[in-house]
Write a structure and sequence with these properties.
The complex is a heterodimer of chains A (192) and B (532).
Chain A: H1 2-37, H2 48-51, E1 62-70, E2 76-80, E3 84-87, E4 92-101, E5 107-116, H3 118-121, E6 124-129, E7 135-137, E8 142-151, E9 161-170, H4 174-180, H5 182-191
Parallel strand pairs in A: 1-9
Antiparallel strand pairs in A: 1-3, 2-4, 4-8, 5-7, 5-9, 6-8
Chain B: H1 18-23, H2 28-56, H3 67-102, H4 110-129, H5 155-183, H6 196-227, H7 241-275, H8 282-295, H9 311-339, H10 348-371, H11 373-379, H12 383-413, H13 419-445, H14 460-488
Helix pairs in contact in B: 2-3, 2-4, 2-14, 3-4, 3-5, 3-7, 3-12, 4-5, 5-6, 6-7, 6-8, 7-10, 7-12, 8-9, 9-10, 10-12, 10-13, 12-13, 12-14, 13-14
Classes of the chains: A alpha+beta (192), B mainly alpha (532).
The complex binds protoporphyrin IX containing FE and copper (II) ion.
């Protein structure tokens, strides 16, 4: 009886530990699920070829608003040149943003995008974006960045306005990145 | 770890004495008693916090406590009640009753049993010590959502480690229960002859082992996000705070069934006894309980309808939530059918069980309302939610535990409790609990948000009634303490072995009080003697 008990207990302990692992596995699993279904209000990274079917709906105009935020811990300025644009669904458009490092330190930032309303996020495709990678700004640097996007022609009729919002955060491993990127930064500096 | 399952017969009824009896106890009855006393203590600590909440909410405006402390009260009240009162009370009853009900001498792993109990006071010392720390006690809600919870001061690691220890304790307890039932049943005690209390506890134990580690994982992620530079829930590092809600509720919804299933088990023992009829639909009760447990893993996002899920997700979780109502309905039907044409009497345990039947069902109905996605947008985070979960938790679960205590107290102590006091306890509790929680529905529908220390003056009247109900309910519980102390002191009529005229089951074949080691020679169980 004691042996049977030990066996039962061992199996159950293994099960408990596996469930602890499953808790962690949920993090990537959810992302996979969202990728497959294209849900969660995250906007996808796509190529021009995949979205520019060539069809542009000239009869419709959709207002795209831009919203820019900076996390309080990051000493940057971040603005859009134009805060609203009117675009035709299916057409490739470009918006320009300006970001400036107000501090006397080199900092790596990361912009996190989000689209509202969430149904619109399914049809909002970015083909190029400063948010796809970390952005490094040396002390006092100011630069322009672009996002190129297509609003899918299948966008439901009822959606007339959508908002693309960005929040810049300091990339968590900022110091390391600055260090390893030093040569690149210097190269850029040398070019002026 | 050692599992000394079998006791040597020479030490038959030898009880260790003094403080050592409790500190080093490996006896299922002593440990059961400790769990129950601990649970009752935590019930009053959590209750005192609730009184602070109701005092502050007696009037609009800020009266007695500052908002941060108020939020700590709601947060720690919930953690203490769920992890300190309800769960340990369930484990305590399991410890006392399961070995007796399956015909075993003790739990399968007595030493582990001792550890799983003593972890609890330690974990709650960690949790409650945060009140004296820089930044105060947790105040971001018992659900611990980031980023808010990460703004807690020095208390955060204490909160997280307390949750880890609580999880560890309940997983150890659960393993012990499963090992006992699987390996130590008396000859003839087949699975389908197990009393329903044992069945609901096996299923609860599996839920615990599946769900608690996920919570442990989630809070570990909080810990590393705050101190070790990970970014599971931190948007700056590509994480997502909504992810925590998914992880939390994947644990959280099964958790509500962890809380309620033992109560279902208790009333499934009591209702047949006082209806003097076997339980209606025993097998369907077992299957319904198992289906509830299984489905509970697929409904978690009904707590998150408003986070901006896609329509397909909202619909899935809405239908899954509705589906749980089906097996729950089967159970309610069976309890009712058990009473149908029975020769019923209404002793205190029966009164509390009927209270569970009515008022849990009411809480289940509001649950169904909130499970309907479009209307939940109105109810979410209002007092309507507070009303819902207090109906299922207080008259649904606490009443069930109290019913169990009244039912088995004569068995434990050997003397009958004071029936007059018991009836007083039931009626004062039942009236006050409804005065306390029913008007919260109205407040919620009118738009009063939950977790706030101040409110619009339009809500004053109902809040005052609620606060009066709260204080009355709190005071009513003192009657229970009185009843228990009287029995523990042996004041009362001598109880027979069977205790109740209509009672069946192995525990009622033992003397009252039972010997220190329950069944040293396993009883023979037949279809006729098996309890259903
Ligand atoms: C038929 C059964 C049930 C259904 C359909 C149901 C449904 C729900 C739903 C949809 C919510 C979320 C509402 C919102 O936040 O907008 C909720 C909240 C809650 N339910 Fe239930 N429920 C049921 C049974 C239970 C049981 C048995 C318990 C406890 C033993 C329970 C405890 C809770 C708690 C504690 C919350 C609030 C969690 C929080 O936000 O802190 N429910 N329920
Ligand atoms: Cu739930």
């Amino acid at each position: 009886m004691a042996e049977a008990t030990t066996r039962t207990a061992q199996k159950l302990f293994v099960f408990a530990i596996a469930m602890f692992g499953f808790g962690y596995a949920m993090v990537p699993l959810y992302d996979v699920l969202c990728d497959i279904t294209g849900l969660n209000g995250k906007t996808g990274e796509t190529t021009i070829a995949a979205v520019a079917s060539g069809y542009v709906d000239k009869d419709r105009l959709v207002t795209v608003q831009f919203d820019t935020n900076v996390n309080t811990a990051l000493p940057w300025n971040f603005k859009a040149i134009e805060y609203t644009m009117k675009v035709h669904p299916g057409e490739i458009s470009e918006a320009v943003f300006v970001v400036e490092n107000k501090s006397d330190k080199d900092i790596v930032g990361q912009a996190v995008p989000s689209v509202a309303p969430s149904q619109a996020s399914l049809y909002f495709n970015k083909t190029e974006c400063f948010c796809f990678t970390n952005q490094t700004l040396v002390a006092g640097e100011r630069k322009e960045m672009i996002v190129r996007f297509v609003v899918g022609a299948e966008l439901p009729e009822k959606i007339k306005t959508m908002t693309l919002s960005y929040t810049f955060f300091e990339a968590p491993d900022s110091e390391d990145v600055v260090f390893s990127n030093k040569s690149t930064v210097e190269a850029i500096d040398a070019k002026g | 770890m050692s599992y000394g399952a079998v006791h040597d017969d020479e030490h038959h009824d030898h009880k260790p004495t003094g403080i050592g009896r409790w500190l080093f106890s490996t006896n299922h009855k002593d440990i059961g008693t400790m769990y129950l006393v601990f649970a009752l203590t935590m019930f009053f600590i959590g209750g005192a916090m609730a009184m602070v909440i109701r005092l502050e909410l007696f009037q609009p405006g800020m009266q007695y406590v500052d908002p941060q402390f108020f939020n700590s009260m709601t947060t720690v009240h919930a953690l203490v009640m769920i992890f300190g009162a309800v769960m340990p009370a369930g484990v305590g009853l399991a410890n006392w009753m399961i070995p007796m009900m399956v015909g075993a001498p003790d739990m399968a792993m007595p030493r582990m049993n001792n550890m799983s109990f003593w972890i609890l006071p330690f974990a709650f010392t960690l949790l409650l010590s945060t009140f004296f720390m820089q930044g105060g006690a947790p105040a971001g809600g018992w659900t611990m959502y980031p980023p808010l919870v990460l703004q807690l001061g020095d208390g955060l690691p204490f909160l997280i480690f307390a949750v880890h220890f609580l999880g560890l304790s309940s997983i150890m307890g659960a393993i012990n229960i499963i090992a006992t039932v699987f390996n130590m049943r008396a000859p003839g005690m087949t699975f389908m002859r197990l009393p329903l209390f044992v069945w609901t506890w096996i299923i609860t134990a599996f839920l615990l082992i599946a769900a608690m580690p996920v919570l442990a994982g989630g809070v570990t992620m909080l810990l590393t996000d705050r101190f070790f530079g990970t970014a599971f829930f931190d948007a700056a590092g590509g994480g997502d705070p909504v992810m925590f809600q998914h992880v939390f509720w994947f644990f959280g919804h099964p958790e509500v069934y962890i809380l309620v299933l033992p109560s279902f088990g208790i009333i499934s023992q009591i209702i047949p006894t006082f209806s003097r009829k076997p339980l209606f639909g025993y097998a369907s009760m077992v299957y319904a309980t198992a289906s509830i447990a299984f489905l509970s893993f697929f409904v978690w996002a009904h707590h998150m309808f408003t986070v901006g899920m896609p329509l397909a997700g909202e619909l899935f979780f809405m239908y899954a939530t509705m589906a749980i109502a089906v097996p729950t309905g089967v159970k309610v039907f069976n309890w009712t059918a058990t009473m149908w044409k029975g020769s019923m009497t209404f002793e205190t345990p029966m009164l509390f069980s009927i209270g569970v039947l009515f008022m849990f069902t009411l809480g289940g109905f509001t649950g169904l309302m909130m499970g309907i996605t479009p209307v939940d947008f109105q109810y979410h985070d209002t007092y309507f939610i507070v009303a819902h979960f207090h109906y299922v938790l207080v008259p649904g679960i606490v009443f069930g535990i109290v019913a169990g205590v009244y039912y088995w107290l004569p068995k434990w102590t050997g003397v009958m409790y004071d029936e007059t006091l018991g009836k007083w306890h039931f009626w004062t509790s039942t009236i006050s609990v409804n005065v306390l929680f029913f008007p919260m529905h109205f407040l919620g529908l009118a738009g009063m948000p939950r977790r706030i220390p101040d409110y619009n003056t339009q809500f004053t009247d109902w809040n005052q009634i609620v606060s009066v109900g709260g204080i009355a309910f709190g005071l009513s519980q003192l009657i229970l303490v009185w009843v228990v102390i009287k029995c523990a002191r042996g004041q009362g009529e001598k109880a027979t072995d069977q205790v109740w005229e209509g009672a069946h089951g192995l525990e009622f074949t033992l003397p009252s009080p039972p010997p220190f080691h329950s069944f040293t020679t396993p009883p023979e169980v037949t279809e006729a003697t098996a309890h259903s």
